[in-house]
User: What shape does this take?
Amino acid sequence: MSHGARTLLRAEGGAREDEAAPALPLKGMDEPLVDKEPPLPEALPLEPARALALADFQPPRAGAVDSMVRWAYRLGVPGSVLAAPLRKPAAPRLLATVASPLGGERVAGMALRAGQFLVHGLKLPVDRIELASNAPLTAPVQRMVHGFTWLRDLGACAPREECAAIGETLLARWLKANPVPAKGPAWSVEYAGLRLLGWLVHAPLLLGGDARLRGQALEAMEATARYLDRQVARAEDRLGQVAGWCAIVAAGLLLPDGRPRRLFGEAGLLRALGELVSEDGGVLSRSPLAQMEAIALLVDLRACYEAVDRDPPPALETMLGLLVPPLLALRMGDRGLGSWQGAGATSAARVDALIAASGIRARPSKECRHWGYQRIDAGKAVLVLDAAPPPRARHARHGCASTLAFELSHGEQRIIVNCGGGELAGGMVPVRIEQGLRGTAAHSTLVLDDANSTAVLIKGQIGKGVEEVDIARTTVKQKGRDAARLEASHNGYAARYGLIHRRTLLLGADGTGLSGEELLEPSGRQGKRGKIAFAIRFHLGYGIEAGLSDDKRGAGLALPDGSYWQFRLGGDSGEAHIAIEDSLWVDGQGRPRATKQLVVEGLTSRSGGRFPWLLKRMG
Assistant: This one.
């Protein structure tokens, strides 16, 4: 399919549902900037891009003996019997020490040495946190406590001999509070998988001291591996299942008599990986944080293979090659990630460390049609558009009603953003606003009647709403240079209000001007009578100061980098006007930052409406 052709993306499965802004000088705002723009020339289709095809993620080819061993282990025959039927089972021990190339965050490790968990910017005293599985903890704290994700950070902050005592103390507390195996959140497949893989990869931080604790920890590793053998298929979603399978394979590599478990785990892992991602390599939850977790799991597992001097299945490297380019597509000008599907603005340092550890060198994908994001690079500007329905209900982790929202940066300055951070609620982001951060109004797009384009439910789930997205990507000639234009529409408001939202974005070739148009069209042959309230929200990047023009149809934006931009409504946008309202933006550390937003609002006919606008750098 050529880039210039329209693509229709459908949601499978059916169910979706501070103080006043300072007055700023507005340069040249007496005339409507949009009206000065020449008519758009005829669209020219782009050349087709090379498509990546998924490898055949089937169990690795094996002889009759390996196939029989895998089949018998799946039926429940103990691994020790299959590996060495004529001798006693080997005592639990680790066969190798793993050196993962993926490091943690030193700041979080230093906080842990000071006696505090650092959870998305929030410091929590370690001594006051209950470690039992049924303890009332927020989701991010549960993940850190029961997934032992803090081990990577602890290892990054100091030499092993200086921080191992902390790891051993926390492990002893956790084992005492959680008999193996038990029930509750600690024994979800994902947390158990993350925990076991963390224990195996960072074993020197846990097993270097007391012999009694070492014996308990090794027994807990084996018991957790047996638990995952039985429960991995019951994971909450595909990513949780991949975490469980990675831990099973790692245990098969690093614990005695592990060959049957490894064969069993490799077959399950490769099947789960094939079901985890869309055709262009994006995870089905459409979450950049989930994409990063998938990459990190495979990086750690590959390190386990290297520790025992064994080659991993080729499909693991193939999958890493598929996962990295879509993640890079969400990088903005400051090299951090955009705020999509519950993620905050993940920092450039964290992304750089992950990509370096993966060993994959790739360029960002421009079109992730199946994952659902479109990217345009022009001059120093980067624009990313959400051009797909929200994830299916069974894949959604922190599903957001963000269809047709966009983010824009110029250089290292983020200009238009989404609030983000729904997945980080429970750290510095209050849990009570989690659903609001996932709503349409928290994203830079159009909202009708203050309603979400897709219903936002509790526990990260989504309901009815957007089912189809029509997307076309073309190039146009602009002063002799090629500029990229995106035109997309969604039907999220069709059932309730009988209107289709169509958005067109044209980013100038030099990256200093973005012209857009919001079009509301009747979904049927005849539009409904009456009027309906609308709001087109443009959440502004952190530190941007905004001021309105006298006619309230324009706004000036003073950016922290010293540049000055103007936003202006087109002359035929009816009685719409601009207001400046409070907003917030969740930064790369999980901290909510007070910001502003431009809101184009008014009433429009239920038979449709058209609202052009222009954002342009001045001087």
Q: What stands out?
A: The first strand starts at residue 7 and ends at 10.
